[in-house]
Amino acid sequence: MNQAEVSQLVSKLRIRINPRHKNLKCPEGPQGRLNKLRKTVNALFKYERLELNYTLADETRGYAERLISEAIRHGDTHKPTMEMADYWIEEKQLIHKLFKVLVPRFNDYQTSYTMLYRAPKAYPEIVYPRSVLELRGNPFPAILPQRSDQRNFIHNVLLDEAKKAYRAEKYEEITKSLEEQRDE
Amino acid sequence: MSKIMKRTVFDLPSSFRITFGGPMVLQSRTAHNVRAPRIKYPLWYLQRERAKDDQQLTGDNRAFVKEAVHDKFGMPAVIHGISTYDVRSPLSEDSVECLNVEWNPKLQRTGLIARKLGNYPMWLDNGKSVLSTLLQVIDNHVIKYIPPGEFNPPRKPYSCPNHKKPLGCLLVGAESADPQYFTKQYCGLFYREGMMPKKYLGRFMVSPEAALQPGTPLLASHFRPGDFIDVRGKTIDRGFQGVMKRHGFHGMPATHGVTKSHRRGGNVGHGGEKGRIFPGTKMPGHMGNRYRLHKGAEILRINHKYNVIWIKGIASPGKTNSIVYLYDTILPLRKHKSPPPFPTSKVADDDQLIDSYKEHVYKFTDQTITYEEDK
Amino acid sequence: MLLKTLNFHRFKCGFAPVLRASRLFSNSPPSDVQQPSDESISGKQVKPERKSVVPSNSRFIYPEFLPDPKIEWRNSLREKLERMDMIQRRKHIDIPEFYVGSIMAVSSSNQHAPNKATRFVGICIQRLGCGLRANFTLRNVIKHVGTEMKYQLYDPTIQKIEVLRLEKRLDDELLYLRDAPNEYSTFDENMEVEYLPEGAPVPVNPEMVKLKPRPWRARWERKNMKGLADLGLEDRFYERAEELATPWEKYDLMKQYRKTIPEEEQKEIFAEVYSELHEVEVMRKKLKRKKVFIKPTKNV
């Protein structure tokens, strides 16, 4: 049995965490793995939306979320956090973006800071599952179509009518029972 | 005549081999030309999950569907530490004949469906520490009873000594769930009994005397502390493994001239007449992900508030949070000595009793263990 | 808003990591630890005035109440039942606050000892495990033989746990004392209890240990121990240690995350157990006062 580490306190992430890290193909070992992830984390903060292989995107997501949550938790005056940001963000002007743009943006969020979508693959060239990773609140048009005509779909119309009938029946029952009570 | 015989032979499963005596012995080597039994699924073997698609429901409509579900079945509630639904009409009309029979050792009771919670140590009264596994009985209800005459499984329990006993089939479900997530045909299994669909189903062979009404809740008090149970579950999938991990071989030395075979199994065959590999030789291969039975586990403690059973030992198959099935043990020397709750325990009215322990198990509410001086 | 409160929390934890438990208990108002369970999720809406009564350093005093962070092995109900059992046991035995480096005495029932009980004094060199499996190891030199005893914290045969000298060392594990000369781990069996002034922080003993020459039980030059004096090795040892070092691991945010229990979950856990622990503490204080009262009458 292991014991939880108590030396430092972290905020809870609002994403699903895999029990174990995923292996990325990396001849340089664990250090190379972090270097690989560093590139994508940096690119995510720069472009706010990326198309990646699913494994890489899923791994990157955790690190980006942790970095943002640390920045929100400690602010830019905390030395270890700044050191961490310095390691993970290669283009140093993006550190300013993290603390001055992203932290105010995500400060009041109750959800995760990033989104991960599954993307189609280009058959037959690409065999690995692809995905789209983005920061929430980005300036690009939404990936999922925003259906404004939802309520005109046939099943929604039918359900609306059913709801009205159901409610009417319920009210009738209630009034009946009330009347019975009065009579008694 | 021969035609009829041929048909009978063909239609029987390969395991049901008829010996005609004398020269006409159907040997197992020629069994390949006997057709395998046609797989006939039981009636509850249905497509369970609905295809996942975004139905594009509006928020109002989604709330309405939820409301209708709750009106029909009951509001969501936490009962015995499990988030489930407060179902109002569990017991339907008497569809099953209840024979008020006293328990005797030949009768077979139903089992339970449980979730494995993990393990932690317990102590005995003499200060000895034992590891225990926690099993939670998760919201079990009887779904259906099929009497012995009507139940006709595709594979008969031929090797089981009980096959001559007429046994009925009791279908038990565990963990209620929102019917929106299941197919219509799967929900239909539960519809007549007025129950919510269950996430897990289990089939238990019971004596007709131990049959239960559909809708009867099954609790952890079905067993008593000190009883022995069998735990059936799916072992952890370990993938393709070598002989050292799979069969516990010792491997070969690390040095002394050994090259490239430190973890290999060594010789697998003989020479001459026996110059082949015998069937069943232990070799590398897929390990785990099989149903296995942990027999004769002793119950140390039962928590009636959360329906948790502590059993001695950590050998029960499966990961933490996996589903296991609990039965009365089949080991002849560990069967019930005194009558257990038959056909099952009743729902207790008073919630006074929370924990019940086996004899000689240390209760955490007890004083520190001290030994008396020898005289 | 939350940022400020969080910073405040951090400040408290970071700079005054360990206060005396007793002081904290006496300061905090009793009972009513009912916290909204979803506070962690809707943290933003919670007003800053409604601060939890649970002291922020509980995780150092009761580390075994935090579950194993391995995700595959976690189950909330099992953890809850385990915590309930632990509290039941704590009602019968005083498990004081202690750290690796503290000098402790443990009396436990022993069937083979003359008085059916033994007392062992030693320095705590390791503290492991969580839940009912929590254990600690004491080390002492008895008759010129290094002796170690591993005790389960919640073992019902343990009669008494005393902390003779409450202090910390520079490291979280003092296993290197096995390779050190006997003077470093020799403690008097009849040692008196050294009391700390009420409310004082736990002192850190900055003692540097000088190991015996090699061979050792582990390659200490590779372990980054703060409490080891110069090891006096050849250069090749340090070069190899540098080759094998993993300096990037401190930047692996997810690895850290998988080893810890997040703050929100910790708050929930301690909010659940704190009221009970507090009650136990108050009970014990009352008993102590009674004992103190009895003593002078005996003398008279």
TrEMBL record, chain A:
InterPro entries: Ribosomal_bL17, Ribosomal_bL17_sf
A single GO BP: translation
Record carries keyword Ligase: no
SUPFAM superfamilies registered for this protein in UniProt: Prokaryotic ribosomal protein L17
A GO cellular-component term linked to this record: mitochondrial large ribosomal subunit
Protein origin, superkingdom: Eukaryota
Protein name: Large ribosomal subunit protein bL17m
TrEMBL record, chain B:
GO cellular component: mitochondrial large ribosomal subunit
Gene name of this polypeptide: ACYPI003905
PANTHER family per the UniProt record, alphabetical: 50S RIBOSOMAL PROTEIN L3, LARGE RIBOSOMAL SUBUNIT PROTEIN UL3M
Protein name per the record: Large ribosomal subunit protein uL3m
Top-rank taxon: Eukaryota
Protein's organism: Acyrthosiphon pisum (Pea aphid)
BP GO terms, sorted: translation
Residue numbers spanned by region Disordered: 251-283
Keyword GTP-binding in annotation: no
Alphabetical keyword list: Ribonucleoprotein, Ribosomal protein
Similarity section: Belongs to the universal ribosomal protein uL3 family.
GO MF terms held by the record: structural constituent of ribosome
Keyword Ribonucleoprotein belongs to the record: yes
Automatic annotation (TrEMBL), chain C:
GO BP terms in the entry: translation
Predominant location: mitochondrion
Localization per record: Mitochondrion
GO MF, one annotated term: structural constituent of ribosome
Polar residues composition bias: residue spans: 27-43
InterPro entries reported in the protein's UniProt record: Ribosomal_bL19 (IPR001857), Ribosomal_bL19_sf (IPR038657), Translation_prot_SH3-like_sf (IPR008991)
Gene Ontology CC terms: mitochondrial large ribosomal subunit
Keyword vocabulary terms for this entry: Mitochondrion, Ribonucleoprotein, Ribosomal protein, Transit peptide
Superkingdom in the source lineage: Eukaryota
Pfam families: Ribosomal_L19
UniProt key word DNA-binding: no
Stretches for region Disordered: 27-52
Keyword Chloroplast attributed: no
Gene3D superfamilies: 2.30.30.790
Family: Belongs to the bacterial ribosomal protein bL19 family.
PANTHER family membership: LARGE RIBOSOMAL SUBUNIT PROTEIN BL19M, RIBOSOMAL PROTEIN L19
Protein name stated in the entry: Large ribosomal subunit protein bL19m
Source organism per UniProt: Acyrthosiphon pisum (Pea aphid)
Lineage: Eukaryota, Metazoa, Ecdysozoa, Arthropoda, Hexapoda
